[in-house]
Amino acid sequence: MKVILFSPVRQDAETLDLALGSHIALKGVAERWYYDDNDKATSSNLLARAGGRILDPIEFDKPEYNVSGETHAWTNKLVSRIATIRNHAIQEFLKTDADALFIADSDLILHPELVNHLATLGLPVVSEVFWSKWIPEDPWMPNVWDGHPYSFASPDNIIRLRDAMIEDRGVRINHVQVGGLGACTLISREVLEAGIRYEPVAGLRNIWGEDRWFSIRASAHGFTLHADTSYPPFHVYRKEMLEEARAWFDCGCPREYFRNTILTDEWADSITRKMAPVKRQTIACILPGEVFSQAWVGAWTELLHNLLPHYSVSPMFGHSSIVYFTRQAMLDALRALSPHPDLILFIDDDQILTVEGLRTLVRDLEERPELDGVAGWAWCEQNSYGNSMPMLSCGIFNRDGKSERLKFEEMVAMANDLIPISYSGFPAVLMRGSVLDRIGDRAFMPVLDEELFPPYGMSGEDVAFFIHAREKGLKFAVDRRVKVPHLKLRCAEPAKTSSLEGAPLELKEN
């Protein structure tokens, strides 16, 4: 089988010198062709001394090619240029009697047996798999793919490519069918005579890249595309990889090198994790109230904007003249959501929760799996509690079962930001969706007890919830970092109401 190697060359001299050395060592190559597209004379001189045929130049624009960043900066003009150069080589190839054209990028260091091996497979189009980090922090990925523009049906379809031999229906083979390939490809004469070229496909402009264009055209014409894994090249994608590539080539291009160094079991685990379906968490936002001030709407708009990229959000507004029924009806409606939300956020229409406050509450639940919910805190000012001074919105039940408000000075003096509580006034409470299954049917209905709740003998709706929660073994805490301004008078500007620590009563009343 007569094979012609072709490589378009626009390369630094050090990498090109090593690549050309691997070309010269290749077995099974009848002729070596190159297109000199270099920017520097040193690279052109190397190419001229390598002994292959230099194809005649084509007169068309030569845009800048920048490889100094994290990844190679391809542009539409560059892609069009490389496609034109490859098609130029195909036209020259069809003037010969050769059986196949082997096209290899000039930053690939090739195994001496590669072309001989690919020629024995008898496949219309086959690429040898090599591995690249397109972006430094990404995992190593192959030059072949399942679907365009560059996707894979499963992590297994990537992982199998690292192995030199693959078992298929009991037969040991070393190649698999793929949806796209490139950069190191043996193409039979039959494919090129059928008119398959590196040209864009009309109607598929979103699929970009000369190798993708060729792959789509070949597949549409009925030619199968295959990837072989027997003699992987070394891809010098960044200049700092050159010395490692040179050592690999000098050691005889060991095929097991990549499996032992970069394509480890840890790499396979990272591929599996990266491609695992991501379950998008859902958050139900319970927003009871009648009057939503400008300040509240502004804060909620910012919260929603920050929630939407990360969660499926289900906002729920509701109001009635009886606070017990308002919260209970909204909780009942929440139970009807299927599936149940992962998180539930309560914010009243007179409370302002900031984005940073919400993020803090989310982190609390992520870091403290034993907690079922966490609350922010607010100042309460209602005189019906028998105290004219502001009180915190949370507290504990003492040994007698009576409520004791947490004191601000005590809260500040505690060692931790997260403080266990027995109840909260729901200024802003984030809880796990699992609370729905555990809290019971009438979580917000009042608890009747003349002794514990004078003078009316019944709890408020918020305290009732936490009494039921405690009976079910649920655990809650308040995060002292999450301060929630309490706009009891529905004022439009909340700045003053958020700073009441130690304020004299006269100033507060004013």
Describe the overall structure.
By secondary structure, this protein is of the alpha/beta class. The chain has two domains: 3-275, Spore Coat Polysaccharide Biosynthesis Protein SpsA, Chain A (Alpha-Beta Complex), CATH 3.90.550; 282-509, Spore Coat Polysaccharide Biosynthesis Protein SpsA, Chain A (Alpha-Beta Complex), CATH 3.90.550.40. The strands form seven sheets. It has an eight-stranded mixed β-sheet, with helices on both faces. A seven-stranded mixed β-sheet has the order 16-15-17-25-18-26-23, sandwiched between helices. Strands 22-21-24 form a three-stranded antiparallel β-sheet. Strand 21 (394-397) and strand 22 form a beta hairpin. Helix 1 (13-25) packs parallel to helix 2 and helix 1 (13-25) packs parallel to helix 8. The radius of gyration is 34 Å and the shape is elongated.
Keywords:
510 residues, alpha/beta, Spore Coat Polysaccharide Biosynthesis Protein SpsA, Chain A, 2 domains, eight-stranded mixed β-sheet, seven-stranded mixed β-sheet, 17 helices, 31% helix, elongated
Short description:
This protein has about 500 residues and is an alpha/beta fold.
Total beta-strand segments: 26
Estimate the global geometry from the Cα principal axes: elongated
Separation of termini? 97 Å
Please state the oligomeric state of the protein chains shown.
Answer: single chain
SSE order and pairing:
Blueprint lengths: L2 E7 L3 H13 L5 E6 L4 H9 L3 E2 L21 H18 L6 E5 L3 E2 L4 H8 L3 E4 L2 E2 L8 E2 L12 H5 L6 E3 L2 E3 L1 E4 L5 E5 H5 L16 H11 L4 E4 L5 E2 L6 H9 L6 H5 L3 H11 L6 E7 L5 H14 L4 E7 L4 H13 L7 E5 L7 H13 L5 E5 L1 E2 L10 E2 L1 E4 L5 E3 L2 H6 L4 E4 L1 E2 L3 E5 L2 H4 L22 H11 L4 E8 L21 H5 L1
Parallel strand pairs: 1-2, 1-4, 2-3, 6-13, 15-16, 15-17, 18-26
Antiparallel strand pairs: 4-12, 5-14, 6-12, 7-8, 9-10, 11-13, 17-25, 18-25, 19-20, 21-22, 21-24, 23-26
Helix pairs in contact: 1-2, 1-8
